[in-house]
Amino acid sequence: MKVELCEDAQELNFLITRMKDLLVDYMQQSRQSDGLLVDYKEPDELERIMDFSLPDQGVGPEGIFPTITQTLQYNVNTFSPRFMDKLYAGSSPIGVMAELLLAGLNGNSHVYHVSPVFTLMEVHVTRALAKLFGFQGDRAGGLSCPGGSASNQLAMITARNALFPEIKRHGYFPRPPTKLLQELEREGYRPYFGPAAESSTYGKLVAFTSIAGHYSLEKSAVIAGLGTENIVGVPCDSFGALVPSELERLIQEHIALGHTPFFINVTAGTTVLGAFDPIRPCAEIAKKYNCWLHVDGSWGGCTIFVPELAKTLLDGSELADSLTVNPHKMLQTSLQCSLLLVQDTSIFPRANALKANYLFHGQTHDLGDGTLGCGRRSDAVKLFLGWRYYGKLGYQARIEKSLSNVNRFLELLAQDDFRGQRIQMLRLGSDDDDDDDDDVDVVDVNDVRRGGRDKTKPSLLQICFWYRPRASRLIDWRGTEQIWREESVEQQQETLSSTTVDHDTSLEKSAALSPSLSAASLASSVSVQSSESSMSSAPGTPILTTISMHSKATRAATTEAATATTTTTTTTTTTTTTRDYGVILTDPQEREEAKAWMERVTKAIHARIRARGKFMIDYAPLGACLPIFFRVVLNPPTIRELDLVQLVEEILECGEAVADMVPIPKCCRAF
Ligand SMILES: *Cc1c(COP(=O)(O)O)cnc(C)c1O
Hints:
This protein is of the alpha/beta class. Among the domains are: 243 residues, Aspartate Aminotransferase, domain 2, CATH 3.40.640; 144 residues, no CATH class. The strands form two sheets. Strands 1-7-6-5-4-2-3 form a seven-stranded mixed sheet, sandwiched between helices. It has a four-stranded antiparallel sheet with strand order 8-9-11-10, with helices on one face. A hairpin with an 8-residue loop joins strand 10 and strand 11. Helix 22 packs across helix 23. The longest helix is centred in the middle third of the chain and has 42 residues. The chain starts with 6 loop residues before the first helix and ends in a 12-residue tail after the last helix. The relative contact order is 0.11. The protein binds pyridoxal-5'-phosphate (PLP). The site of pyridoxal-5'-phosphate (PLP) has 14 residues, from helix 6.
């Protein structure tokens, strides 16, 4: 006997069947090589095309579909392997289905008894993931949060409340800074700051993260009432990874001021470059100074599924007090899925629970009690189902596929000498850090490891480069010491004096006077130029023998000559290096001009690529002295060779098309 469907079931059946066809078709479209992933419209245009008004009379099941079809048309098809704009990309089929399950059940994971299965899935998947990171205890596990920023925020507040439980109740009243007290006393005042501050066990709380860390740490400080000034930016090495000795130095400085360092954030996979801060040495420092060690692995944390990588990139993860990981980025679970893992999950209710006993009746599986919220989406379910579906090895294979795409893309770019150097890779650091001597920039996935690896290559799935217009000359933009050390000029002076390059220092001195060019970058550029100029006169002459202050014109000429020589000497075996990173613009004004021009070029190409709708890539800035550069994220494992080949063509085509529209400043013109 056929059971008559209830009204809602009938309606759902109609909607979901129609939607299923649309979605399957949408997924199919995303893989067509001539298909578009966006029909991009500016907001006012889109307002004209679509109807965003809200009616008094509902449109009903039939009437809703025109809106849905238009949404599919004008929103971005992130299922496309050509969506390379962001760290997240389209979901996987099981990701969509898991989301459908969540939508279908509409369960709330604050208390166990309204979502028993979802709750246990969250408990089990966070426990399993925590174990992968090496968290040992029986109570290792975590919570899902609405995004990486929210996970970082929960980490900071949990840390603060765990270390200083009184703040939860009394509010935040730090002891006044030592220096202020001393000054007041010297002036004969007997300051009184109120009972809370007088009896405070802590000074002004300060947290540490690298200057390449994510801004959510600062947001967390805003929310926690600590203030952004108290998130201390730790300098990075030339490749964007935190320098532990700098971390310790800054901690000591703050202690001397009477402040209380309490939280260290280590980024595993920075947002722009994908750099990994070294966890282990930071963990030692955290222990020494009684700080909470948090690892922000929002982006790079998922490399835990690739043991070969994790062994080095995530070395020391087992020492973290808390760790954020976003499966919605590298594992293609649907947005959002972010987890905060800890060594002992009982810390969450201890640090954050209030006495909301109308909701929480003492069941330890009531996960909501440990959060800063109330009702919560069961996002962990998506990782649970995805993990069951693909297995740990399946996830590993997917990430490895993306890593091999990075290799392949770099090979493609390197072909024909980076298309006659139209494509200029973002280079950071100096030749001293370059430990391979072939002139093809190819990253070896198996070689991505701290120490032995070539740090001039991408650490993860981001590829950064510029397009160089044909009639311009190649400009060496390195100046990374400056970028990473912007905030500590004194430190930079030290680097300057310790540079052990044997040459006329007048060039460095002028660089030191120039606000936009660092001595360290000059030192490296000088070595490049000298090798090349010596190449043109006496092949095989050791680098760094006869370097003197060139005038701008002679240096330019030398470089041009070197470029010419490079092409003829690449086949000989006499050269120490055949790399040409271009001319250094030492004049600050010229450098500014060049930077502004390059930024216009990059933005024009970016706009054109987006308007054409075949690819989506983004650009990013890095420090004050580099022009913005393209950042392509090869995250979707669905990216095919064809997509990579066509991406190179797309960049070159759009580059050719816009280059003439942006006049080249004199200092950047080819001779
Ligand atoms: C993406 C990212 C975040 C923020 O994650 P959301 O889920 O977007 O809030 C935090 N830290 C790092 C390093 C990231 O890359």
